[in-house]
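Re: Re: ligand-bound prediction request (bumping)

Still looking for help on this. To restate: I need the protein modeled with pyridoxal-5'-phosphate bound, output as structure tokens. Inputs repeated here so nobody has to scroll up.
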Amino acid sequence: MKKSLLQSVYDPEEFRSKGHELIDLLADHLGNTTQEKSEKVLHWNLPEKELKFWQEFLVNGDEANFFQNILAHTTHIHHPRYIGHQASPTAPVTVLTNLISGLLNNGMAVYEMGMAPNAIERIITDLLCKRMGYTQNANGFLTSGGTLGNLTALLAARRAVASEDIWKNGSTKPLGIMVSDQAHYCVDRAAKIMGLGEKGVIKIPVNEDYTMNTALLETYYEDAQEAGIEIFAIVGSAPCTATGMHDNLEEIAHFAKQKKIWFHADAAHGGAAIFSNKYKHLLKGIQYADSIVLDGHKMLMMPMITTALLFKNGQQSYETFMLHADYLLSASKEQEWYNSGRRTFECTKYMMCLHWYVLLKNYGEEVFETSIDTLYDITQDFNAILTADTDFEVAVVPESNIVCFRYIDIALDTTATNQLNTQIRQQILEEGTFYIVQTTLGDKYYLRTTIMNPFTTLTHLKILLKNVKQKAKVLSL
Ligand SMILES: *Cc1c(COP(=O)(O)O)cnc(C)c1O
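Reply:
Sorry for the wait, this slipped through. Here it is.
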């Protein structure tokens, strides 16, 4: 008898055989990329051509080649010459936890829809709080990304600090936050979503090393007050995204305490260094933050997207939303840590805690320390090579695993140098044998690398520089 469509969709044997095939394909891919059996990190394609390909595939493509084609049309994070954006080369075991979450599909908002993951999430966030140097009063939860984490933290801050009950009544007075002008754009976006407007985002200029100039805080604060803006929070970046440089969290904490405002640490990228004895000094003062954001999918080898949001005073994490969804959550004053949706922006979320737990269970905290040390160490070596070479200039001596550098030729002015480096980066992208990105700092365009991958060696980085020089020579002719 022919299976019905839905029988076929849910057929366990089909799942088994396709699943095994896929795991084989992915394991081969992992081996091929990490061992550089394929030269390319990506096969660049113009957006319009890419669109055509997938339109055509939907109609005429062979279903059996679908996964293979996805691999061929994406950027290969595990490739040693992937040194672009801050995406984790996922630890394969977390790919398996992704799979479990996908099949079980427990939404976690209420305890019954995720008993194990709600308990596991508590264990993970308690551990993170402890490592950050928080006391017993602290707790937190996992959420979908640093962007959402930062927004949620600022909502909690407004709830805790602002003089009005804005959640209930809406806001009548202008409110503001303070943040370095090098902070991730999502902080600005969060503030705009909260209705603070342009004038409510007090951007503090940076020092020469791109960290917040904390000497200016008092003046900027007073100016805002004079303009009738009530400041309720200050955000420190650890580190900021473009350059990987850490704001002085101790000084920000001191200022926040003095003004009785909320201190939020955006440690989406670098919070992971708390696991490293060698590098945790970069986060000095983070224990004073009222809230901390830390991404698992950046430096902790996990799939996108999983973020810890931690609160120094855990009670405040329960007060952010204060809503009554009676069919889901009964009104309660108790800290119902086991009903995830009480505190998260999301209602449904996937079982992201499994990635954190399986890594800790299988490899221990040491895996995070080893990874951070490996990546931050090699970045120092890369910086040494760049600094010793007169053809290159770094924007700043790196603190983490992000390096901004550019090719320089004394015969060229800033505009021409920018143009040259822009062309170099475009050629590298189209060639596909390396993946690097770019950033603009002040009026200067930089090539930007983030060393995310333990397979990247100094040899790779030297080849990249040679490659950049060759391109510069040809382009300058
Ligand atoms: C990446 C990053 C973010 C955004 O996090 P997502 O997880 O991509 O939403 C925010 N802040 C900093 C400092 C970051 O590096």
